[in-house]
């Protein structure tokens, strides 16, 4: 009887919550709770692993850094399970452990540490030259490990084929390699040897390459033989820097370049002592990953032992398990490929199919051949797939989960509809950042949740931001102002020992603007992501724009992503990049859109103008159009807005077809040199 009396109250509860404006949030409570429980379990599990490593015998691999002890653990628990598939090659966890042990011993020999053919000698407390305990450099400028330029010359490559001076403890070794098994063995080997790796973007040459090597204080460079020809002009500068130079394979290397894989093959595959890589502090730097360089030269972001450990939980948080097969076609020098893809796979002990280069035409055949169940994406990869012609291989696959970041809502819908049933899990994070979000509900277009449960585990805030001044809005007390639902805000996260910000190699000046003080309370410090997000009334987070990409025109703020979204709804446009350009005699920046046509369509200027006029306010309608064969992007598929803005709109210097919005006529017209002159003379209004 009591249950019957309570039934009407339970039925009325959603109406009461809706009236109190709580229902939009509480309807997702079950999903929020489920993810919170998963996150707490993951956190507890990783904490227990770290404590076990700290308590282990220092001579055991279980006492080493998180990469060392996790790989050794998997080699013991799942020795025959396939860890890596690369083309026709397959490697078990036991084989991965042995290969990385050989690499570690090759690097240790370069450090002057020699265990001999029979294994290890001495003990961690002996203080002998051969068994020195790792003393990692303290956190500071990269120069702490490199010294002056003169010192670099003393610790560099072999001169004329002679023996190289040993690498110092904790020195940085740069890897300039394609995604391959050898990349992984060398990375793991460096970690086990107590050396720092620096992942150099594979396409860098000349000035940008030398900049990266100097900024991270590299003492050695490992390069792929296939890169030697394009690196030939750089070799004198590399030798002048005193770098120890290795290549990953035989060939005509020239003086001072030795075959690292041959050196590793000559080593025994026994484990190395854990004390060599055990961190003194979990926030010590163990790796450098370079930012994409969309606004200038790349910066070497410091990656800590703590972040490596946390990334072991990535795929667990995504709901992936150890029997899954993960398809990874992202560059390993990028955080998404190395830390989330590889380290995340190690965290659950699954299998990864590694591709040196993504092929949209081969993707589904690969998935069928290897039984792929999880696809790790960057949004552009999904767009490439939906733009492919239909293929029989795209049906009957086993892919159940696509996880990644940067997937636009229109591509998301097409991807699920065409290739489903599968689930998309969009995430958000930055290489150097201390905050991450997970859209564990699958809500299209969202990159995460802002529920109070989630923010208890991973705290962050959205604060008001003034695009004119480029600074957060502060109240009369000097505190930042939280945004309201539906209002774009700057994503910031508190800096703490559990969520630190380590900055970049090269000095604190490079991190200028990344830390905000007195944000919500006196004395607090927050990391500035530089991203504008919107939290809707249901608590879903959606990307709005980069702070540097939003521009002002006619006294109004223009979000480049919103304009691009409108243009991409046109069926004849395949890609759109919107940015602001400086027009002499005008305040702010005028909108310009670089367009790529979807084959076999032609550009319909009349439809494009009508669509823009109907769906965008006048100030947001791009004043210039630039028709291109393909868009300029970084190697991680980020659009090159700064470069495009700097190239401007002068038809005498650009070979691409250009168009200008003539508001008097109500159309986009060819932007001829005559119209360009009229614009500069003030005779053509925009």
Give a written overview of the molecule.
It is a single chain. The protein is of the alpha/beta class and 686 residues long. 32% of the residues lie in helices and 21% in strands. It has an 8-stranded mixed sheet. A 7-stranded mixed sheet has the order 7-6-5-3-4-8-9, with helices on both faces. Strands 16, 17, 20, 21, 22 and 23 form a 6-stranded antiparallel sheet that branches. The longest helix is centred in the N-terminal third of the chain and has 27 residues, at 29-55. The protein is globular and about 80 Å long.
| Span between termini | 74 Å
Q: How is the biggest beta sheet arranged?
A: 8 strands, mixed
**Order of strands, widest sheet:** 2-1-11-10-12-13-14-15
Number of continuous helical runs? 23
Radius of gyration of CA atoms, rounded to a whole number: 27 Å
The percentage of residues in β strands lies in: 15-25%
Can you count the beta strands? 30
Mean pLDDT: 87
List key phrases describing it:
686 residues, alpha/beta, eight-stranded mixed beta sheet, seven-stranded mixed beta sheet, 30 strands
Overview in brief:
With 686 residues, this protein is an alpha/beta fold.
SSE map:
Layout: H1 2-19, H2 23-26, H3 29-55, H4 66-77, E1 82-86, E2 89-92, H5 93-110, H6 143-146, H7 149-154, E3 172-176, H8 181-192, E4 196-199, H9 206-215, E5 218-223, H10 228-231, H11 235-240, E6 244-247, E7 257-259, H12 260-265, E8 285-290, E9 300-304, H13 305-311, H14 314-317, E10 325-328, H15 335-348, E11 351-354, H16 363-370, E12 374-378, H17 379-386, E13 401-405, H18 409-419, E14 423-429, E15 436-438, E16 448-449, H19 452-457, E17 461-463, E18 465-466, E19 471-472, E20 489-494, E21 515-517, E22 525-535, E23 540-546, E24 551-553, E25 556-558, H20 560-568, E26 573-581, E27 590-597, H21 605-615, E28 624-627, H22 641-647, E29 658-662, E30 667-670, H23 673-680
Parallel strand pairs: 1-11, 3-4, 3-5, 4-8, 5-6, 6-7, 10-11, 10-12, 12-13, 13-14, 27-28
Antiparallel strand pairs: 1-2, 8-9, 14-15, 16-23, 17-20, 18-19, 20-22, 21-22, 22-23, 24-25, 26-27, 28-29, 29-30
